Amino acid sequence: MPHTTTREHMHEVWGRVARWRRLILLVLLFVPTFFASGYMASVLPNKGTVWYETALVIVFTILFAWISMGFWTALVGFLTLCSRYNRFYIPGSPPHTQESIAALPKTAILVPVCNEDSVRVFAGIAAIYRSLEKTGRLDPFDFFVLSDTGDPDIMVEEELMWDRTCRMLGAHGRLFYRRRKLNVKRKSGNIADFCRRWGKNYTYMIVLDADSIMCGATIVRMVEIMEQHPEVGILQTAPRGIGKESLLARLQQFANNVYGPIFNVGLHFWQLGDAHFWGHNAILRVEPFMRYCALDKLPGKPPLGGEIMSHDFVEAALMRRAGWAVWLAFDLGGSYEEMPPTLLDELKRDRRWCQGNMQHLRLLFTKGLCPVHRALFLNGAFAYVSALLWLLFLTLCTAAAFYHAFHKPVYFPPDKTLFPIWPVWQPQWSVILLAFTAIILFMPKGLAVLFILFQRGAARLHGGALKLFVSAVLEIIFSTLLAPVRMLFHSKFVFVTLLGGQVGWAGQQRGERETSWRDAVRFHWGGTLLALLWGSSMFLINRTFFWWLTPILTGLALSIPLCVITSKVSWGRALRRMGLLLIPEEVEPPQELLWLQQYLAALQRPSPLLALPTLHGFPRAVVEPFVNALHTRIIRSNRTVAEMIKKRREALVARALSQGPNALTVKEKKELLSDPTCMKHLHQRVWELSDHEHAAQWNLPV
Amino acid sequence: MDPDTQSGSPIDGSESHKSSVVLQFTTDPLETAHQRLLLYLKALNIPVYQRYDLAEAALNRAAALHVADSDIVSTAMRCLREVLSADPRFNRTQDLEDFFFGQEGKFIVMPPLNRSSMIPVPLERTGPLKFFFFLLVRMILAPLRPPFRLATLCLLLAALIALFIWQTMR
For A658-666, which contacts have Cβ atoms below 8 Å and span 24 or more sequence positions? Predict the structure, then answer.
């Protein structure tokens, strides 16, 4: 193992400090939680002595500890940023001299994709490529698009976009395209497949998402940092949300840009070299990754067994277990990602993440993992389980309200007592507790805004101090309204996962597609109905409690219009015109984002190489000679095919000719696409069709 | 296909008969074939000024080969491929791949393979009880120096054995 002594020494240096910091975090978590839960018990009519009140106090304690972790992280982040002192900030060390920078080691930039919008993917790659080219350090970098796409139409478009991008940038021999036939172990399997085939050629790999954008200078700096710190196995950047225009996406971009930095610094403060790996916008040392981070299946069936879905956390834990540090370079700019455009898209993504994070609970007691990564597993799962606990808390509160409405208190129980038992509910104490909880929840946001105001010129990049403040208030209103909706869905996800329901891992919807009222009703009618029933019954039975519930009931009752409105691009644009929810990348867009727009426009225009631009996907690969040749050149299969398979494919070709491409299923199209001989044959035969009806099926003019 | 064009015997392919044969196809199929050839040549990115010559050459060849009940479009397309493969301007190839990428030596989809292994690491999961037991033992032993550590471990084991015997005896 290389550099073992150096690594151990480095780990010792920050490890000692990290232990102290984490101990302080535990004290900060548990001491206020202890007092808050005691106060909560005292607020309740029976002081937590009856079973439902005891349950309420327990759930409250867990939830309070959970939210206070965010609070302390943000506070520490704020103080660190204000003091401008960070002893262990890894990108802080001075860069190498010009000579050593010139000798950067070979680095692969991986873009795993699965049924994504190919125009966006390749426009992003082109922007990164150009940015890297501008640094003058392009030579050590190779780009790999690793496709797990299963949709035959998208497969063909990906190939075409790859070729167009290569031609546009002159990147043949530097931008590679590989599509797996079998989608084994999803993204982690895709990256492992790359490592097995070409990993030996590279010292580092930078993993990106389909919607990632990174500046060339940032990429070069990441490689330099890895060179300067041989003990680091993974260096994760903190990507900023950019590029979307729907209201929800702009709210999240704003939150990510404004609140994100202090949380990231806080996380760095506690974690140091035991940080997260978020699966993208990060650099990894290939050799230890290949040796220690190949993932095994979990015993049992999905959802909690089988292939590990959220592989990134586990890979970070395994890298750390092998003695390599994992750092978060929170302040390394030029790293971007896109946000889900609608609430439904966000919830679909959360459904998958929930299952992945719940799986991590089974790895909690894996041998050799460092305690922080166990805590991160727990934390990840708790991000969703907390929703269920919140729902349980509200249910218990409602049950208590019902109980007190219909059950007269027993002042003199059968046991002999000197004094009557007098259930006293102190509403003013509850207000104090609520205010305290609200401070814990919202103060981090206030601190983040304050930090921006402290920095000279930073508020201008958010539209000015007043507009920054209004934007923050707007974000708080929407996040408060959406919180109960998310709670309900996350609770359902946890419940379904525990009951054995599982989800697929299809590509994400990343385009600006608005949610229709029909879809919103289909997804949110249950929540709306629940809110109306819950609210009306509480209004009739216990009006005081009804007013306490209104913030939650309002969000749930309005979930249908909220879902539609937040998906509106026009609303997002209108707020942008008003100077609200602005982020620095909207006010002063970096060159890479401008290039992205240019390449998007260029790749959306029909290729001059195509004679029938109205065709798309599979028919395009059959009809267009260039696309057909490109496809057969890319798949390049010399395999001999069994007679039976040959006959089956011949029958498919005959069916495609007589009934058109729509007569073929996805599986059949994929089978034909996998066979270059069939594709060539089909191409020739389609062009020979003279019958009007048959030719029209392939969009051939007659 | 127009019934008029279907009648007649196989046509003589000699050059002298070419123009007259072409004139026999004055209705849709011939026009369809011509349009199809031009479209295909466009799709091959052949310059406009060459398209008409090539299409005519292919059409004439097709007309010469045309037999009754056969499809002129299909014959013309086959002939066009032959014409292209015979033409030195187009690499003398019938293969589309070579036609488009024959000259492009730089067309590399993936680099050469350099295989190595990546074997999944065993995760070695333990149960929570076992995990916390060993954690507790480690926490107790951690502050102790090696001779005391061994002694403490022995004492702990002895205590456990004694507890087990006492429980069994009872």
Answer: A658/A694, A659/A697, A660/A694, A660/A697, A660/A698, A661/A618, A661/A619, A661/A622, A661/A697, A661/A698, A662/A697, A664/A618, A666/A150, A666/A151, A666/A152
Of all residues in chain A, the one with the smallest CA distance to B38 is A611
B117 touches chain A (CB under 8 A): yes
Range of A656's domain? 618-697
Domain identity same for B21 and B87 = yes
Query: Nearest residue on chain B to A322, judged by CA atoms?
Result: B121
Residues 266-295 of A with CB under 8 A from B: 290-295
pLDDT band at A95, cuts 50/70/90? Answer: low
Contact B106 A624 (CB under 8 A): no
The answer to whether the CB atoms of A687 and B78 lie below 8 A apart is no
Specify if A640 maps to a domain: yes
Is the residue at A212 inside a domain? no
Can you tell me the distance from the alpha carbon of A336 to that of A134, in angstroms, rounded to the nearest whole number?
Answer: 18
In eight-state DSSP terms, residue A94 is: P
Map A571-610 to HEC letters. HHHHHHHCCCCCCHHHHCCCHHHHHHHHHHHHHHCCCCCC
Q: B13 and B85, same structural domain?
A: yes
Residue A573 inside a domain? The answer is: no
Do residues B17 and B70 both lie within one domain?
Answer: yes
The answer to whether A610 contacts B122, with C-beta atoms less than 8 Å apart, is no
In a domain, B125, yes or no: no
B105 vs chain A: nearest CA distance in angstroms? 10
Total domains in chain B come to 2
Which of B73, B104, B114 is closest, CB to CB, to A200?
B114
**Integer angstrom CA distances of residue B132 from A26, A367, A694, B126, B135:** 18, 12, 71, 10, 5
CA distance B170 to chain A (A): 35
Which residue would you say has higher pLDDT here, A248 or B104? A248
Query: Could you tell me the residue range of the domain that residue B57 belongs to?
Result: 3-101
Q: What mean pLDDT do residues A353-378 have?
A: 93
Residues B54 and B135 in one domain: no
pLDDT tens readout for residues A203-214: 999 999 999 999
* Residues A215, B57: Cα–Cα separation, whole Å: 54
d(CA A643, CA B102): 31
Q: Dihedral of CA A666/A522/A241/A260: which sign?
A: negative
- The position carrying tokens 């993993």 is A207
Q: Under a CB-based contact definition with an 8 Å cutoff, are residues A452 and A472 in contact?
A: no
Asked if residue A424 belongs to a domain, the reply is: no
What is the SS3 assignment for A243?
coil
What integer pLDDT is reported at residue A4 of this predicted model?
A: 59
Domain check: are B22 and B95 in the same one? yes
pLDDT in tens, A413-446: 777 677 776 666 677 788 888 898 899 999 999 9
Q: Which amino acid, residue B101?
A: F
Reported as a pLDDT band with limits 50, 70 and 90, residue B6 is very low
Reply yes or no on whether the pLDDT at B5 is more than 70. no
Please count the CA atoms within 13 angstroms of the CA of A226 that sit on its side-chain side.
27
Whether B69 has its CB under 8 Å from any CB of chain A: the answer is: no
Which residues neighbour A422 within 8 Å (Cβ) at sequence distance 6 or greater? A409, A411
Contact B77 A142 (CB under 8 A): no
* B47 at A interface, C-beta within 8 A: no
Verify cis geometry, omega within 30 degrees of 0, for the bond prior to A303. Answer: yes
* Tokens (6 digits) for A308: 């590990």
Residues B93 and B135 in one domain: no
For the stretch A584-601, pLDDT in tens is: 999 999 999 999 999 999
Interfacial B residues in 118-137 facing A (CB < 8 Å): 118-128, 130-131
Spell out which residues of chain B touch residue A689, defining contact as CB-CB under 8 Å. Answer: 73-74
- Residues of chain A found within 8 Å of residue B124, distances taken between Cβ atoms: 366-368
